[in-house]
Amino acid sequence: MGRVAAVLSVSRTAALAVTLLALALWDAHASRLPAVADAWDVALVAALVIPATFLAVWFLQPAASARALLPALVATGVLAVLLDLAGLESLFNVTKILAFALLGFLFLQLLEALSWVVLVAAVVPWVDIVSVYRGPTKIVVEQEPGLFERIAISFALPGEDAAARLGPPDVIFFALFLATASRFGLRVVATWLGMTSAIAATLVLTYTLELDGLPALPAVALGFLVPNADLLWNRFATRRSTAG
């Protein structure tokens, strides 16, 4: 992680550390708090815990340009496994956030053009929908719930042992699209706000409609595409006119 950390400013590194510590403390101690109604659970996670989780990705985002992402990802993955084996669940949970974000940044380094990322944003929501209702995600959640709980990001609920969960692809593509906005001169703040709000809205909609779950990647993709729609349109229109 050394070279990756060197890309971050001192203030960003400190903010990232504080955010991860706060998330770990919440995950470790939320169950000891007084229980509240389910609606308040959803409101708390949507308004505070989800934004704090993706605030960590925001602080880490400058590392997307680092050359040592693969070693950093491997080191973070190994650390996550060791924390899991040691039974340090809260630290394991926040380390997964870092690992999935680094994986998203690494994917961006494999994509050479903005058009490729836009194509990914157009395709992955449909893949996610099929996976959740007919494919691998449905199988894992129904037949191997323990596996899903191990790999997903957990959002602890006050006064309960239960937790809301977000799958790895949601964090991976969040990081990919956020880093894309920065790399290609799109609206970084609006992208973060759009994706974070869309994920929170997905959780609220899941509760309101009394569903077992909804695919979150459509929300992530829309949160990236909608705030940048005019910029993307102008970028591609200019390219077509230049090529013509």
Structural class: mainly alpha
Q: Distance between termini?
A: 45 Å
* Beta-strand content: under 5%
Cα gyration radius (Å): 18 Å
Please tally the helical runs, counting DSSP H or I stretches of 4 or more residues.
12
User: Mean pLDDT, nearest integer?
Assistant: 90
Describe the largest sheet. 2 strands, antiparallel
Could you say which overall geometry the principal axes of the C-alpha atoms support? globular
Topology as H/E string?
HHHHHHHHEEHHHH
How many beta-strand segments? 2
- The residue ranges in which pLDDT falls below 50 over 5 or more consecutive positions are none
Helix content: over 70%
How many structural domains?
A: 1
Strand order, main sheet: write it out.
Answer: 1-2
Describe the structure.
The chain has 244 residues and is mainly alpha-helical. The chain has one domain. Helices cover 75% and strands 3% of the residues. The chain has 12 helices and 2 strands; from the N terminus they run ααααααααββαααα. The protein has helices at 2-7, 10-29, 38-60, 69-85, 89-110, 114-133, 136-143, 145-151, 168-183, 188-208, 217-225, 229-243; strands at residues 153-156, 163-166. The chain has a two-stranded antiparallel ribbon with strand order 1-2. β1 and β2 (163-166) form a beta hairpin. α2 crosses α5 (89-110), α5 (89-110) packs across α9 (168-183) and α6 runs antiparallel to α11. The termini are far apart. The mean pLDDT is 90.
Please give the structural blueprint.
Elements: H1 2-7, H2 10-29, H3 38-60, H4 69-85, H5 89-110, H6 114-133, H7 136-143, H8 145-151, E1 153-156, E2 163-166, H9 168-183, H10 188-208, H11 217-225, H12 229-243
Antiparallel strand pairs: 1-2
